[in-house]
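Record 1 of the preview.
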Amino acid sequence: MHNAQSDIASPSSSNEERQGFSSRIGFILAAAGSAIGLGNIWGFPTQAAQNGGGAFLLIYLIMVFILAYPMLVAELTIGRLSQKNPIAALRNLSDNPTAKNFASLSGILGVCALSLILSFYAIVAGWLVSFMLEPIFSLLGMNAIADWLTGFSTSRNLVMMLVIMLLTIRVVQDGVSAGIERWSKRLMPALLILLVLLSVYILCQPGAMEGLELYLIPNFSQINADLMVSAMGQAFFSLSLGVTGMMVYGSYLAKKENLPATAAMVAGLDTFVAILAGLLIIPAMFVAQKNGVTIYAEDGSLLSSDTLVFTVLPAMFNTMGSVGPFIAIGFFTLLTIAAITSTISMLESPVNMACEQFNQPRKKMSWLTGGVITLISTIIVFNFGSLFGLVITITTVYAQPALAMVFGLLLMWVLRRDRLLKELQQGNPEIESSLFWKIWPWYVKFICPVMILVVFFN
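->
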């Protein structure tokens, strides 16, 4: 992908050229696949249903535009600047020893946070596989297995988590082009097709228009600090910011690519899928309500918000007669694809770091790193009540926004402005005279940190 790589080890061996994406569309689908996951298809619609529907949608779109997109450009730029793993890429921003050490610590924390996210994400992804398989076993009359798949148990959680981790390791070990890019090109179109087909079907059901009205018409009285914090967290989690995932994907991006434009495509595709998921999930809730399923408590709060896709929607599928099992299979296949495209990117960052920092082959580091994360996930499975929610809160509520802010500050305060401009000019020679260059550097340097801190502490 590039030639100036004598100072770093290749992900596969020190004698091979460092891997990269073979095409722009491959990068966009892989990066969007990293961003598009349960945060979009489960988290976003649930947050919207809890926080005023259209009001949350409006604030979320604003947060993506004014905070998440500028920080996405920053993380992709850090990665492509040196085309090294996240720790080395952050160290490369400065010649000052103190700044280098702080940057290294930030990179390590980012990779650790991403690994912890994968450790709980793999458990949830395993649930999705269970609910995808359950209708199949029910149709075959194998009710004992079907009940085990949808019943909450340590054995179910452990087995299905192992299935997800094995699939993820298997893709990542094959490398960037042969593994991640190839599977992203297969899975992302399948995800979009399933999402559109299911949305059209649900919108044709009785009760769907009531959900559509809630989703698209803002209730401005519900806009408050809590909603803004939720929308910001959702935007950062959705775009995989603050945890080095986008940074390592940026390091695989060709120098000829226009970084701001490519980042806009990734953010746009991610946001489009989130909006489309809202058109599926929220109307589906009201279809379920029309079919006799209770979705709201007496005080107006959403019931089972954290387990919406495992309680309310399966109850709806059960009311749909003979077509219900097939809709359920399609729906949970959609969620499983979204989850796996994200777990692949989550494992790639620590594997990339391990390969390059220790000069080890990719296959070995994929299984070793994946094995360590699987062990952490196993500990969470056996201590579910005390660890699952805690790990989610530490990583997604606190670590992601804080680390995204740190990465942006390192780029803008530590890196020389002429180096930053030169990097962006490689994909867009006229960028110096553009409105983007007049606004983006100082915006990420001053405005984004202040906005993140204000929203965060409120």
